[in-house]
Design a protein that fits this description.
Transferase(Phosphotransferase), domain 1, 7 strands, 6 helices, 48% helix, alpha+beta, three-stranded antiparallel sheet
């Protein structure tokens, strides 16, 4: 199987809404493929926020609860940015987590490290929307309430430190490769 298929299966086993696999396999040359059902009526959360189709309040609790569910299932995403939460335009509480190729079971030895990394990625990806700190605290309070893994203050300090590291790393990559994050045009039929 492919890493994406494995990750989708892990998410499904955890009861996390994700892509529906239609077909997958290996080609004669050894490359793998996967076909998934199109997420009609869903868009990445960051694009919905950018285009003012939703406000962050509408996805604050649902994204927090999905993150908690992921970590309660002892999984980490390793790419838990806002753009990997696909949101139903008609019901922002209806989310699907995509880009599952890096989803894995959390190694026992580094449990907190991987959780902080996931959460820092999410927090970093919200920065460009200038979301009030109080809202992000509410997000984290709900997460901690569900997972009971840490205190809000202690976890917030760890997330901030890691999110700042991600920001520095991202700036460095953008200086070296200025075209690396060019957006893929959306089909606006």
């Amino acid at each position: 199987m492919s890493l994406e298929v494995d990750g989708i299966e892990l998410l499904k086993q955890a009861g996390i809404d994700t892509l529906e696999i239609i077909a997958h396999g290996k080609l004669d040359d050894g490359r793998s493929f996967i076909a998934t059902r199109e997420l009609l009526g869903y868009r990445p959360a960051d694009m919905l926020l950018r285009d003012h189709e939703i406000d962050f309040d509408s996805v604050l609790i649902p994204t927090s609860e999905l993150g908690a569910k992921l970590h309660q299932a002892n999984l980490h995403h390793r790419d838990l940015y806002l753009n990997h939460f696909f949101v139903s335009k008609s019901n922002p509480k209806d989310l699907k987590l995509i880009d599952a190729a890096r989803v894995r079971k959390i190694p026992r030895l580094f449990h907190r490290r991987w959780i902080v990394k996931d959460l820092a990625q999410f927090f970093y990806s919200t920065r460009r929307f200038n979301i009030e700190a109080k809202k992000m605290t509410t997000w984290l309070e709900r997460y901690v309430e569900l997972t009971r893994i840490d205190s809000v203050d202690r976890l917030q300090r760890s997330i901030d430190a890691k999110a700042n590291w991600i920001a520095r790393h991202d700036r460095s990559l953008n200086r070296r490769e200025p075209n690396r994050n060019l957006p893929i045009p959306e089909d606006r039929r």
